[in-house]
Amino acid sequence: MAAKRSKTAKTKKTERKEPPGLKPFYLLIGVIAVIGVGILVYQATTQARPTVAPVPLTLTPDELEQVEPVPRGDPDAPVVIEEFVDFQCPSCGRFATQIAPVIKQRYLETGQVQWQFYHFPLVGVFEHGFLAARASRCALDQDRFWDYHDVLHARRPGWSAEGDPTGSFVQYARELNLDRRAFEDCLRSDRHAEDVTAHLQVGISRGVQGTPTIFVNGDPVRELTVSAMEAAIQDAMQNGAMDDPDPAEPEA
Amino acid sequence: MTSVAPAAWPRMGIAVLALVGIFVSAYLSLYHLGGIGTLQCGFGGCDLVQASEYAYFLGLPVALWGLGGYAAIFGVAMAGLQPRWAGHRPIALALLGLSAIAMVVSAYLTYLEAAVIHAWCQWCVVSAILVALIFLLSLTGLRPASAPNLDMNST
User: Fold this and answer.
1) Which of A36, A164, A171 sits opposite B23 (nearest CB)?
2) CA of B37 to nearest chain A CA: how many angstroms apart?
3) How far apart are CA A113 and CA A217, in angstroms?
4) Cβ contact, residue pair A44, B15, below 8 Å
5) Is A149 contained in some domain?
6) How many secondary structure helices (H) and strands (E) does chain A include?
7) Residue A150 falls within a domain, yes or no?
């Protein structure tokens, strides 16, 4: 009887024992799991993530003066229109798609106006504004800022609703036949974060509080309509060229 | 010498393929969730495919659904290798059902890449191949004679 119980116990022990033939298989599963986890960790730690917020940057008043906008049009034009924009701001989109094209056609293309674009991402209001600004700077690297600018404004409802619009921004670059790899490397990094932050600080120093904010020869335009813009441009033309804060050196 | 019965090999194969699938889909999921900045994409247009509207289903990345599917297949296949489940036909049916669903979804996504998005994501192609192989292996488990025999005393 005792011998029978011992035999039964031995049998149960044998049944619970892991089948030896599965050990190499479990080893293979373990090896694949370790390799897989290793690759994922490596990718997650080495592949850069995009900078989506302003970076610490301290600019002196002189350095603020030297921050360059993105220009368009004749640099010798008598009137300068400065525009402070967040690409995710709906009002900026309306201004860029409905009013700015009329002004640009009438005054920029005729050499009467130079357009100067400044980024002014409203951090805390629009979560993707900073990344969109950086994306446009990555397009600027390939001399396609204005084309990309137009696409960002035109397709704002789509990308602004996304949790992470990085893929859409890369897709727009593809559609514009930009160098996708160069653009993506730029976007998924911290490149141009300082440039955008510098623009933001220029705006703050100029008293910009919302977007879009437009200056015509240094004077803010209160009403963003075609007629108000044209009136401001006409005034600026009659009052002469914009005061140059940094007069050119006299010729020798 | 003890060995695994030949009939157990399909489930082992399914488990290995599903584990690879888990890591492929986890990689794409991490990309969508922001854990990975850039996809390694040797050819095609991974970014285009992953940025398309079809990359999401019910608000979640398709890759995340895939991760759940692969995990389920892996779990069932591993369970089916345990001696107590070795002869269970429901295991074979569950593997066939899961892999059939995965096959249909994968075929639809491959169609979208070819005919709608006009771009290929190499990781999606790898996943489609994995799913096809898993489906084929799960078919072999339906044959009555092929129920895994894990009696390790057999040679």
Assistant:
1) A36
2) 5
3) 10
4) no
5) yes
6) 12, 5
7) yes
pLDDT of A57: 83
Report chain B residues touching chain A, CB-CB < 8 A. 2-4, 12, 15-16, 19-20, 22-23, 26-27, 30, 32, 34-38, 40, 45, 47-48, 50-51, 55, 81, 83, 150, 152
| Residue A44 with chain B: CB contacts under 8 Å | 30, 35-36
In a domain, B30, yes or no: yes
Indicate whether this model's pTM tops 0.90: no
Which tokens hold the place of A173? 């670059």
Q: Considering the domain boundaries, does residue A17 fall inside one?
A: no
Q: What is the mean pLDDT of residues A70-91?
A: 94
A208 within some domain:
yes
Give the count of domains, chain B: 1
Per 3-state DSSP, what percentage of chain B is helix, strand, and coil (rounded to 5)?
Answer: 70, 5, 25
Outline where A161-225 has alpha helix (H): 166-175, 180-187, 193-205
Chain A residues in contact with B45 (beta carbon < 8 A): 174
What is the bridge-based pairing of β-strands A113-119 and A70-73? antiparallel
Q: What is the pLDDT of residue A241?
A: 52
pLDDT score recorded for residue A23: 85
Residue B57 structure tokens: 């289903």
Collect all residues of chain B within an 8 Å Cβ-Cβ radius of residue A40: 23, 26-27, 30
Chain A contacts to B (CB-CB under 8 A)? 15, 19-22, 25, 28-29, 32-33, 36-37, 39-40, 43-44, 47-50, 164, 167-168, 170-171, 174, 180, 184-185, 188
Q: How many CB pairs under 8 A join A and B?
A: 77
The total of structural domains in chain A comes to: 1
Give CA separation, B14 vs A39, B19, B21, B122, B148, in Å: 22, 8, 10, 21, 13
